[in-house]
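I hope you will forgive my troubling you with a question about protein structure. I set the record out below, with my sincere thanks for your time.
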Amino acid sequence: MIRSIIDIIPASYRSRSLWVIAAIFVRAILNFIGLALLIPLIILVLNPQNQGNVIVDFLSKHIEFDNHSNIVAYTCAALFATILIKNLAILLLQRIENSYILAIYTSLSRALLVGYYNRGLSFIKEHNSAHLARNINGITLIFATGVLRPLMTIAGEAILLALIFAALAIYSPLSALLAGSIFALIVILYYSVMRRRLDNIGMAENEQQRRKSRIVNEVFRGYVDIEINGDIGQKISDFDNALAEISELRKRHGSIATLPQSFIEYGVTIALIAMVIFGMNGANNALMLSIFATATIRLIPAIRNIMTSWSALRINRHTIATLRSANINECTTTLREDSERLEMSECIELRNVSFKFESSDKATLESLSLKIFRGESVGIQGASGVGKTTLFNIILGLYQPTSGSVYIDGTELNSSNIRKWQNSIGYVSQSLFISDGTLIENIAFGRNCEDIDLEALNRAIDLANLRSFVDSLPEGLMTRIGEQGARISAGQRQRIAIARALYRGCNTLLFDEATSSLDRESESSINEAIRELKRANSNLTIVVIAHRESSLEFCDRIITLE
């Protein structure tokens, strides 16, 4: 498991882990020192003659004490000051550890988001978006706080226990051996009894959390269909069942979480009895029992922390498998940012292009070759399922052909120039993405407000026939249009998409069933807007997928896929 955890941690953080390990070790030593400082005080109380008290002998040589009470007072003051400094140092060390854990969380979360994005559209379509979102937002946090933090706690407390038992062994090797053996048996017993139960609870809860996220996602995204079909009752029932299962799993985990305290109490009781019977007799009995009782002040929470942290580690270990399956350190996490353009001045050419989804046995496209020349208006039609949208996604650079290649003016489209090609094209789909922002943010999509070119923006608005709509809005371009454009009509959303492409200065526009969801009047209006664009710019290349013949009337030629 440790090897797997190390593999998940980003390479840039592995060298920093040495500082964290050092902080854990120093923290354990400081905790031990804080405990060890109580011993001289105990000896001072139980042994007023101060025989064998090294600290008191040292203070007596440098400070003149009037009586035994002054010695106790000075010792208590020194002890208080030392513990205060020790605790402040521990707070600093814990801050170092927490900063490291949270830095790994933010790094993993960002790496997953960018990594999933860079794997492309085919990967995203083959996975449930709710599950991907949970991995990015939830699994990474659980791994950091539910796996790494408990692991650090176990390491620190184990070092402290080793120091405590080593110190006890100096006073009484037999009692240290007895106590250590009993506590070891208690921990092993707990581990053997609870290991599989905790694993099962963790995996079951993860599955129910994924199920719950999926239901929530479906309820909001499919509101209309759910409402019309009266399916909300079933969805809420499924949600309630997931919640009930999670609650039951949490109850079981809560019951298990209380067991370490009981195990430890039995261990301490058995250890004390064993030490009385086998370890001590006579005058040393009270002193040794007092020392051991003092040690238990830190032994009990240390062992409890180890057992509780181990429980958390087991119940959250499913995150390790999830993150390892994501191959997070093998995928590209660098954003494909490039402002250059790969302009098409002659033609787009597909040469023997085939495409097959990994999950499919049959190719969606097979040995397709075609050319689209600059300034052409080309329509693509065919029955559902013949690969029209897949063809578009290949031209857009969203899918990589299984075989064959796409060429822009003779330059093969590949990973090194896809971003440049995408910078020079515009895309309008039936399910256009509209962010929950203002109108100006959705037209100048992806631009900071201070970087928006207002002249280009207004030109795009006019060309897309959006001017009257913008002027009718009370807040104009600053009007918020809702998630997925919920506050505007479908036709207005399509015009926004056209304006978005024109604002970017694209000379190649691709329309994927862009008017299929519109009524006849809105469709006719959008088609007329496209014709106007064509008349205004004879070099504008337009490629359209449509079922309706009326949406292809302005095309120079039509390609039928079979």
